[in-house]
Structure formats: structure tokens, C-alpha cells
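Exercise 7.
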Amino acid sequence: MIVITPVKNSLETTKKTIQHIYQAEGNFEYFVFNDFSDEETTSFLDANAAKLNYKHINLAELVNTPSPNYITVLRMAQKMALEKNTHLLLIESDVLVEKNTISELAKLAESLENVGMIGSVTVDQNGDINFPYKHIKKSDGDLFITKRSLSFCCTLLTNSFLKAYDFDTLNPEKDWFDVSITKMSRQLGFQNYLSNALPVLHLPHSSRPWKNEKYSNPLKYYFKKYFLGRDKI
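Solution. The predicted structure, written as C-alpha cells, is:
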């Protein structure tokens, strides 16, 4: 499997994310996509790639478009997974996986029929389900089909789905693509699953703290969203 983490600063959570993936079980290649992070974060990613067994892809050396460059990350990652004929797992830089998260998601991808995407529910440090899955209840079951959008916090995209949907057709006017890609998975006839049995710790918006204003100062957040063109979904 190909595992990727897009990184934009947030060095402390990035360190924890990478360390947890380094300690995780499973057969996978790990790529960290550095989306124009500051010098401190970039230096850390350069210095620790061999030690923590990941490949550092510094987008500043490849593109000149300003961050966020999620569309570039997704397109590159899809090509990697298709070349290896394998699945793609996205783990954000504010998410801490368990030791068995990656291996168990891989098993589900191989055992479920007609599956497009499989997400892990996110929890806080108390084990309570948190953003972006607050609408989910533990009573929903260990594993269930969902028609709601999956976040890319910790989500596997199967090889079958990657073969069916070319990310080169993604809308370049958008910043984030979890909603549109989730919808496309269903439109192409795949089932999307969410796992309550494989929770991951989520520290929301650590890499882009201004997004927390959606809850603390919504007027300021929506001004930035609609007048400054931020956070286009």
C-alpha cells in the first residue's frame, strides 16, 4: 500500500503523526508531501526521512503554485498507487494512528466487495468521537456503509476506485477534495465504509489553525472563506 501525509507546518503534530506511522504494522511505502512548510519543518523532514523510513517530497522543488496544493498531492499519489497496483491511504498531519490501523484497513480493502473508500472514525484524547465525525455514534456498529462524506483524516482509497476515477479531472478551483471524491466513489457504484473499530486520534486543524475560527469566530472564518477565497470545498 502507498501511505501519504500532506504536511503544512504544525511541526509538533507532524512529528507525532510520522512516529506513529513509523511504528505501525503493515506492508506499505510512506511518503510525506511537504506543501511549502517553513524552514524548521522542512529541515526536520529532510533530516529524519531515512531514520523514520519515509520519502520526503518537497513540493517547493516541483511546483510554484501557492499552498494548499492538495490537488497536486492527490494526483501524484494516485499515480504512485496505480504504478504499484495497490491501495492509497491518506493520513493527515494531525492524526495519530494505532499500531494496527494501517494493516487492518488493508485487510478490509482486500476482504470487502465493491469498496471504494474506507475511513477510520476520529476521536479526541478521551476516546470520544470528534470532528469531522461528530454525527457518528459508536452504536452505529464496528463497520458500516455510509452515504455521508468521508474526511481524509485517515481514509483508504482502493485500487479499484483509483483505476476508475482519474484525479486529473478534479476541479482545480477547489482547495479540498474529500467531499467530491467521496461522492464520485458512490456515483461510480462503489460502497464507502466507516470503521468505528479502528479509531484514530485527531487534533483538528493543527496544520491550519485559522480553520478553528469556524467554531470560535464564525464571522471571521466565513469572511476569509467567501471574500479571501480560502477553504474551497
